[in-house]
Fold these 2 entries.
Entry 1:
Amino acid sequence: MSVAIVFGTRPQIVKSAPIVYEALRCGLDLEVIHTGQHYDYLLSQVFIKEFGLPEPVVNLGVGSGSHAYQTGEIMLRLEKYLVGGRYALVLIPGDTNSALAGALTSVKLGIPVAHVEAGARCYDMSMAEEVNRRLIDHCSRLLFAPTLNCKRNLEKESVVGEIYLTGDTMYDVFLRFRDKAEKSDILERLNLVNGEYGLLTLHRAENVDDPVRLKSILEGVGRTNVEIVFPIHPRTANRIREFNISLEHGNVRVVDPVGYVDMLKLLKHAKLVLTDSGGLQKEAFWSKTPCVTLRDRTEWVETVEAGVNFLVGTDANRIIQAVRFIEDNYDLIRGRFCENPFGDGCAARRIVDIVMRFI
Ligand code: UD1
């Protein structure tokens, strides 16, 4: 029997890539199903190409919509592919609507679910991803926790599935592409000076769909004296247009979304990162670049405890203060990057090994 891996968004493709490589290496029959939640070339296909992944066996073409639409429509379309007893297990990476829909559809068809990146918690139920990951964890048979903290979270919640501490597949893929990223010419293309710019990403619904929060973040970032490069998510670009927010601060340069290799290069050579992404907080940590997180809570508490990730929310003054603090204490903060709590780069190997023993 085959195993399916279901993804639909940019970060899920990143999390899945090392599992697909490992499955190919071990002869595990793994089929990739794309929900179509992300459909723009720069949010989806570019990653499949960069990672050299096989084309998905199907793209469900769901696209954008409300949470209910997206989740419900993915379930209806996915069910048609999962029925018939073809799959022994469905792998679900991450915490998006595609992940939730994939997990619910599988479990309701009686197909066991394995959750990749299980146990991440930020304890903020107003975030769609927190709701999704809790529900997925509680219907999973196998739970692959990226860190010890995630494993403990699952134990506290008494989930019914088996918990494995595997490490983080995002770290596997980071290590694999780190050297290649050094060869990227993105700094030259964007005319950026090594170590002298900040990198901004912003896309969380709770930040960008709220004009007050969005304005406050952009005001804070705009009032720092750092040159900022801002690869913009289409959702954020739409909201900035809709809310008629002008990026009048001359230090912020908006560019198109970038691929994985270019992003690693931008991360490594930035003075600091400002982000509301979960994945980027970890990638900044591995790149040894200080991070300002534009959220009130994070699931990656390890990076905050290490003193290299500063949780500031969306208040403009707090953003400015954090950037100043990093600039004033740069060497001290760079010296704080400690042992990596996200595994040893072999997470996918462990996951595929467990999957092969399970099926
Ligand atoms: C989704 C995930 C989020 C993840 C993010 C990575 C959920 C609830 N959220 O958020 O966890 O961090 O992906 O990017 O699943 N759009 C395009 N082109 C696309 C896709 C989206 O223009 O290819 C625009 C549309 O206006 C759409 C909006 O972005 O309405 C939001 O897309 P959506 O898939 O709902 O969520 P993301 O914000 O991408």
Note: Residues 2-168+343-358 form a domain with the Rossmann fold fold (CATH 3.40.50.2000).
Entry 2:
Amino acid sequence: MNAHDSEKVIGTLERQGYAQVDSEEAADLLLYNTCSIRDKAEQKVFHRLNDYKKLAKAGKRFAVIGCVAQQEGEKIFDRAPYVSLVAGSASYRRLPELIARVEAGETRVTGLDDRQTEETFETEFTARKNPYRAYITIIEGCDKFCAYCVVPYTRGKERSRGSESVLEEARRIAGMGYTEIQLLGQNVNSYRDPTGKKSFAELLAAVGEVPGVRRVRFMTSHPRDFTRDIVEAIDAVPALCDHVHLPVQSGSTRVLRQMAREYTRDWYLERIAWMKAAKREISISTDVIVGFPGETPEEFEQTVTLLDVVQYDAVFAFKYSPRPNTPSLVMIDSIPEAEKSKRLQILLDRQKEIQKVNYERHLGSTLEVMVEGTNTAREQVVGRSSQNKPVNFTWPHPIAPAPGSYQRVKITRTFPNSLAGEAV
Ligand code: 5AD
Ligand code: SF4
């Protein structure tokens, strides 16, 4: 999401006559895009800003944008006086105007008060940096207020983009030669078309039917809002990838209630059952938080058993970290760091075993792989299957296939996190 925000900001500024340079030293204006989802994000940002002090010389200007900017606000000016602009993502639409004020010599310019906006940040001038995958934001902000999460406070109110505007961007992207599109939102399942024309599943299907589009992904889903018609759309439209990322966070209904996730273990497993019953084999991945305040060893064990039941193809697991302004901040962060680390390791070890078996099932099969590039030694081509599994493969010709091209690959070896084979 942040990478795509940067693409949009860069495109907007290029439109204003700015040009991107290769190094911080060469820049007259530096925009530092920040994330505050986990850990001590703000400390890292202040640390980095400290390094920028050395770069701060006459004429050079600094801006901090993104979630740490929104969260820390004017405190950033106090700690790093050479910063002239602080803006959160809900204010990006106003960046040209804000930067113009910086250029005019203002020193404490802010874009921090737009979180209640109904507007989305749309631009046709996105500077797409990824050679094989194009991102499209369909919904911004989040109204879910999960107890541990900073996003509703940093990115603001949920607002969706019109389906026609999304489809227009998809057609434009396809016209540029992109064949893979990823639809983005903090919670794409709560997409509400302001023009009332399309549900999320209908929009997904419509993007999958845009001529030239071969792969459509979406990120990220929320179990509370995940509907069965999404699975039906995946079954019906071949361009929709057979992969769903459905963050569970915990396998314990009590912990889920504490997290304000608004679903139970059974509710989650029902959605998994829809996917398992689909005609296509849908790969499922998830996010997990271990060591949420008050999580007992038994409750943690329920997350481990959930992995056994679902048989995920990928699990992104994080130790709970308290975030500013969030409801869980008042809960006692009761689980010692060492215990959190232990739980994380147990979870990752179990998932490694599950994934080994899951990945071994591909041995001998032939998969369609979209090429992303080569490995660093340039011995192998690297890419991904429709299920989002990394595939490394040998190539019989001297010139590597182009990023974004599709190759058929016979799988001859498997690893816990990737597949390997040869082009056929
Ligand atoms: N502590 C740990 N993990 C978190 N995540 C979000 N907030 C926190 C937090 N305070 C994780 C969730 C989410 C992913 C993007 O980051 O698992 O799905
Ligand atoms: Fe955060 Fe919950 Fe919104 Fe996801 S759904 S962005 S975890 S508040």
Note: DSSP finds 13 helices and 17 strands in the chain.
